[in-house]
Amino acid sequence: MVILNGESLTLQEAYHVLFEKEGITASPEALARVISSRQAVEKIVAEKRIVYGITTGFGKFSDVLIDSRDVDALQTNLILSHACGVGDPFPEIVSRAMLLLRANALLKGYSGVRPIVIERLIQMVNTEIHPVVPQQGSLGASGDLAPLSHLAMTLMGEGEVFYQGTRVPAIQALAAEGIPPLTLEAKEGLALINGTQAMTAMGVITYLEAERLAYQSEGIAAITMEGLQGIIDAFDEDIHRVRGYKEQMDTAERVRGWLSGSELTTKQGEIRVQDAYSLRCIPQVHGASWQVLHYVKEKLEIEMNAASDNPLIFNGGSKVISGGNFHGQPIAFAMDFLKLGVAELANISERRIERLVNPQLNDLPPFLSPQPGLQSGAMIMQYAAASLVSENKTLAHPASVDSIPSSANQEDHVSMGTIAARHAHQIVGNARNVLAIEMICAMQAAEYRGRNMMAAKTASLLKEAREIVDSIDKDRIFSKDIEKMASWLKSTDFLPFLETRSSVNL
Question: Where does the record put the 5-imidazolinone (Ala-Gly) cross-link (predicted)?
């Protein structure tokens, strides 16, 4: 059970909740803060004070005063009118992440909601009732208004949810779990949708997938090194120590670990003096992508524990401030940066694929074909990889440099962070397919050289991967192989191969 307190949620804990379906609960200390904050909101309403979003309208309507009799209806109207999302829904795991992050943010105790609102979010996570949230429609400032409205209305029994493998009306799933729908009260609708939880949720899922892929890229590159009889000297510790980047040194160390004991790698001068950059510069390029990942991780863990709605309530309600913590610029930049880091893992992978299949660049069978000429082998797999990395170059264009004013120019600068996060996730998916292609080609090349000469750890990895995709003994529909390999990569952690497996029965 992960205990939420609004202050210390980590990506590792999020992984347990999202991918392993671990339950969540609220800390008593955090709930005490929530109660105090709620009492402040109720006092504001009773005293008829003018406070944005509690006794006024929203956005350009902030100068419209709301009668105390209508403050609850104001919140319901807010959710229904702002539920303007379009397009395909976010993956179910992303909407689960939204619930988790929204509950954690409200537990900070600056938002003024009743504890029951947070309890409902927690119940939905624990019973696996996941809102159907359209992906498109957020500007990434003033919060992820449209996506989070689709989330919020499911608490009210409106809209749709994913439940037990199907898409059903929210009221049906709530009834099945004995959860009464909520009627929102003062400030609660605004507190639920004024935040960055859609872009951050998408960012969390994307980061966790990208981190796994970055580790996998090193193991796959190691098998490519064996297939191409790459020069191991380029991974020598001294080379990377004198440059000084920790991530570069760590990447080189892990690749050396993968290739320890290999009889297929060579020393400089044995076959060639230098390898091409796509082999020789693996630590430098992959290491730089790890620098990106570390930056993104830091920003996500801050945002996961941030109070990002508006207004925020301090000092028992004596201090209520309208600010701009809902602005998604930090996450927009982080997601745009992540796009670059992951796209480069795919770019260099595609160049290694070319070296594996191009007979002008190696002494392997042309295109790794079992019968060159009669059978095309991996020829068009490289085409597919080239197409994917080209598409990534378009997706990598920064979303955060764009801004379109909204709400009659009251909200005149926005982050587009949710677009950045969505595109980052697409790039991760494309990169995974590219690395799946490299894995298929690298295994074929390494087997041609001799499985008995491989390093113990790469041989162990190849043995398991061969349970997913067979050796190329004749032409077949390779898209099926790519799909199976990519699916395996998405669900498989390579670190156990590197850390604990030292031998394999071939």
Answer: 141-143
